[in-house]
Each structure stands twice: as structure tokens, then as C-alpha cells.
Design brief:
Blueprint: E1 2-10, H1 18-31, E2 40-47, E3 58-64, H2 67-75, H3 77-89, E4 90-99
Antiparallel strand pairs: 1-3, 1-4, 2-3
Length: about 100
């Protein structure tokens, strides 16, 4: 099994609440992937509420049957749309992939 964990920081935005709204949109877009990615066992998305200097805004925790399934997720058209949106609204990304 492969575990894939990613954290993002988002831009503040020009409008009040833009960061929170973008975080909610990212969460929904990820949750909409449930059941659409072959080999994805679990997908969980959290929005940070602490908002400290050390915080990321969003975290993704996901599990895949193997590396091939993770690669398929990254190549999936729905994921590519999501990744483009995050790139537009994000400022920083950290990731860890590991096998168990």
C-alpha cells in the first residue's frame, strides 16, 4: 500500500474570505474524486482551523493499493483540473509518499 500526504498553503486573495472559500472548494473537488480513481482506497481532506504561522491551509491524506494506482491518480483528467486550480490559488506545497 502507498500513502500519499500533501499539504498546501493558499494565497490570501484580494477579497475577504477568499482563502477560506478556496480551501472549501479544494476540499470539495478532492472529495468528488472518491470512487472515480481505480486503486484509491481512501481519501481524506482537512482544512486547518489553527491558522498559525506554522500551519498549512489544507491537508490531503490518501491511500492507494500500489504505486501504479497513485500514478493513475496523478494522470486522471479530474485530478489534473484540481491540480491546476490548486496551482492558481496556492503558494506552497509539501508532499510525502511512502509504502507500508
Amino acid at each position: 500500500m502507498v500513502k500519499h500526504i500533501v499539504m498546501w498553503r493558499l494565497k490570501d486573495g484580494n477579497e475577504e474570505g477568499a482563502k477560506k472559500e478556496n480551501a472549501r472548494k479544494v476540499k470539495q473537488m478532492f472529495e468528488d474524486l472518491n470512487g472515480k480513481i481505480p486503486g484509491m482506497l481512501k481519501l481524506e481532506v482537512g482544512i486547518d482551523y489553527a491558522m498559525t504561522d506554522a500551519s498549512s491551509c489544507i491537508v490531503l491524506y490518501s491511500e492507494f493499493v500500489d504505486q501504479e494506482a497513485l500514478d493513475g491518480y496523478r494522470a486522471h483528467a479530474e485530478f489534473k483540473k484540481l491540480a491546476a486550480f490548486i496551482k492558481a490559488v496556492g503558494t506552497e506545497r509539501r508532499m510525502v509518499d511512502y509504502e507500508v
